[in-house]
Amino acid sequence: MSRPPDPEALAEAVLAGDRRALARAITLVESTRPDHRAAAARLMQRVARAGRTALRIGLSGTPGVGKSSFIEALGGHLTVQGLRVAVLAVDPSSERSGGSILGDKARMPKLARDPRAFIRPSPAGGSLGGVARRTREAVGLVEAAGFDLVLVETVGVGQSETMVARMTDLFVLLLAPGGGDELQGVKRGIMEIADIVLINKADGDLRAAAQRTAADYRAALQLLRRRDGDPEGYPMVMTVSALSGEGIAEAWAAMRRLADWRRDAGILTARRRAQAAAALEEAVAALLNARFHDHPAVRAALPGLSAEVAEGRLAPEAAAERLVALFAGPAGLDAEPPRG
Q: For 196-247, where are the alpha helices, taking DSSP H only?
């Protein structure tokens, strides 16, 4: 994408459900070019006025657990019911090259061909939390395009993965049959935010192991304090098989039950408001960070100060103070804020 498209025209096409326009819009919001960022801001402002929302579900799981197979099974179950499903799949990025596999469409061949589904892989690009830098904007765009459900598939499992909960209505953790080391390997933080834990591959020779694993996780969850405001029985542990489809309908029913409960109790509204406030904080931080590193004085001083820190001649905090002072300019950090 060279010259940015007209945000108004692109927004109208997205709101009309144009899939190609939706793909172009997501590409635009993922761009780091200043002119693209300005156009993306206007685009997001325009689609936000439409006020469309969808059920947002975050999904994470250990490597090899079958997240793509599960999403394809769940997505197919929903599209045959007439629902439109968007999948925002964040791929791992290489720390060295920045490249990513972006193979989710290949791993979900049936769903990729489904006219009621939309799959968008995006590189994580080193972003904390396993979500791409502009995933939040992508969620807003697929909602504006009229999708009923947005699945945000995140990279790996770890405490930083909990960031996906800041942009979704409920969080699903997918695990494979196992116990002992597997149970120890899942961080307490991600278990505390999981609304539904699904043990996948509960079929064939692994069925009994999956049921034992589910029992282990139920026992583990009982040690955690139940969150206020959620119905009895949540967080819930269930077994599913993406291969056979067994348990998929029941898992979806559990998701809907929890979402409906939270909506009726006003929890979803409060959650969305809190997420919007957090999004503002993140946007301010990102904008300040970008302008900080683009500042001529900061760019000139940064290599030398970095070398001093690396050699142990200057503390990182002292170097940061100098850089921030350069960024703040002659007025300094102690200048009084404007009044009125």
A: 207-222
Per residue in 114-173, pLDDT (tens digit) is 999 999 987 655 444 435 568 889 999 999 999 999 999 886 655 446 677 778 999 999
Instruction: Tell whether 19 and 121 lie within a shared domain.
Output: no
| Cβ atoms 117, 83 nearer than 8 A | no
Predicted structure pTM score:
0.84
Evaluate whether residue 177 is within a structural domain: yes
**Which residues, including other chains, have CB under 8 Å from residue 112's CB and lie 6 or more apart?**
105, 106, 119
Residues 159, 8: Cα–Cα separation, whole Å: 39
Residues 188 and 57 in one domain: yes
Residue 339 lies in a domain: no
DSSP string, 19-46: HHHHHHHHHHHH---HHHHHHHHHHHHH
Q: Kindly state the tokens that stand for 250.
A: 């029941």
DSSP string, 75-113: HHHHHTTT--EEEEEEEPB-TTT--B---HHHH-HHHHH
